[in-house]
User: What shape does this take?
Amino acid sequence: MTIGAALTGGVVGTLVLTTILTAASELRVTRIDLPFLLGTAVSANRTAARAIGYGLHFVAGLVFALGYYAAFIVLGHAGWALGMAFGLLHASFAGTALVNVILPAIHPRMGTFYNAANSEAVLELPGFMLLNYGRATPIVTLLAHLLYGAIVGAFIGASAH
Amino acid sequence: MPGDYAAIRDYAVIGDGRTAALVRRDASIDWLCLPNLDSPSVLAAILDPQRGGCVELAPSAPHRAERAYVPGTNVLTTTFRTEAGVARVTDAMTLPDGRLGPFRELARRIEGLGGEVPMRWRVAPRFNYGRGVTRITRRSPFPTADCRGDAVAICAWDAGDLRCEAGAVTGSFVARAGSRALLALVAAHGEPLVFPARGEVESRLDSTAEFWRAWSARLTYDGPWREAVVRSALALKLLVFAPSGAIAAAPTTSLPETIGGDRNWDYRFSWIRDSSFTLEAMLQLGCHVEANSFFWWFMHATRLMRPRLQPFYRLDGGAFAPETALPLAGYRASRPVRIGNGAAHQLQLDTFGNLLDTAFGYANRGFGIDRETGTELAQLADFVCTIWRQPDRGIWEVRMEPRHFTHSKAMCWVALDRAIRLAEAGTLPATHVARWRDEAANIRRFIDERCWCEPRQTYVRFAGTEEVDASLLMLAIMRYEDPRSPRMRGTIDAIQRELGRGPIVYRYRGDDGLGGDEGAFVCCSFWLVEALALAGRRREASELMARVLDLANDVGLYAEEIAVDSHEFLGNFPQGLVHLALISAAVACAAEPS
Assistant: This one.
């Protein structure tokens, strides 16, 4: 198992994850837009926010891939199936805590439960399992993260052989 | 009354360069597509008061309403007077101001001007032309409605307690002298909603008015009827789809050409035939940026299928526009309500003349056309040489068997004439100029022999008929024929005599393959004004112009058609071609006699 494989898997996995979320948005299945959510933490300019957001999203994808890598080393085993299980855990964490609780707490432009929108524009809260962005959002994000996990697991597993 | 149909004449339009909303005289907003002009509607009460969705805002007491645009802007004010007071509603689709704001924002400011006016409002969004399941949830900070990839939030400040009931958000409050309330419908498409702060909406409302004032102040026209020309330019600017530069024919679909009839079409596309008018009008008014972006959108869109051309293209330049019917009641039971347009694949020969005339007008004003584009334009002229003998559906997109329409043939001549002139100027390769000249002469011979009626001294609608058609006025306007020639004089007289009803001019009276009757096309009246002015009959032209201007609604807008007897508006609204023809007619009347 190599770090290089983890990073490569992270890049490919993030590409696939981003593509799935973007396609789902274009197909009007969900309104989740992770680059927009991340980028608006840095810039109020929509265009700049999207560009920055894509960058941040890829960095996050690499960081999570390194996390998967550490977990694989601890378990002494890597592969697409185990990666997919990590993806399930990852999606659950994202839907319940990461995007739903932690991101609003640190995002300077995201509304909170206590916000009255009387000072400046605020972004819509994701809600539990990101349901505010559409009923199909949990399914789409779960599918995307399962694939992300499988890809990262497959790359790291392949490097072990 | 809300929940009922209003006359088309009773609407005004507001917009932001991406989409447009129709506001009726009682301040109900009955039409809005999101996020773009050609997206599915969220408000469509104009087509179905029960299922379509609307934003109502009016006094709950008996009242009178007056309205006007803030001068030089696309910001609309409606003033309500009750026995107890006066309140004013200011409506605009706001423009982005550089801060993080909603993707689209419809802002409504309510000011108490005197006494007390009890106001009530109701927002009932219905996504996807009323077909979507609209889910309204009340969560902090504002109620939101969503359906698949689209969402709107209903933001209200000092507008009473919000109630969510029966698929709508409602409220009521009293507008007292000096008070100010604010409503905003903010939209997201494929992304999370952005909830604006009150101060930001107020600020954007003001800066939007300022933008429009500055934009209209730059218009260079100083001739007669300036107010009507500026209003037309402002209306046209709302039809410009900002991301591409395309100009929609109208922001609506299926407002009927006959009440209760089936002549209901989707006009949220950009027609090639409007192009030369568009470019000319923009350049005449000093809108060089808009002219430039329109020309290049136009060249890119038509590249897809060149040398064949579609009559129109989608606002994003796409060519695919399948026609389907929606399960909506239709404006006063005028069904079907169509989206898409089945005329997309008709052969309409006049489009070639319009395209080459547009390129000629663009190059003639000193704008550059690159070698590659020049070569493609030459290929179009070559194609015209091979295709002009075919019958087509003509400028009016008839749905009967194709005919040899005189206007179509003349526009093929225009295509070759402009190609020859561009080649002589070195803009187009001159390899095939001799062929273009020969074929242009053949077209003229065809028209002379088969499309001219000697006993009646007029050109005719198509070869083999004795009918006339208002599109024959374009023979003068496009300089196929000298506007002062005896032939053109005879044709103008015949059109006035046979198609004119006071200031109103029918496009034709013969068969077009569709059942039912229709109103008169308003653009034909302005074409007649222009043809008269070009023919040197300036007094007649000015008198007619004044009478046609009187037919506009109270805010200076026109629908595509007008009923001859009642002067009721018919067809899609506001229609770009009418306002283009108005500008062109005013300019022709204002020009020095030549």
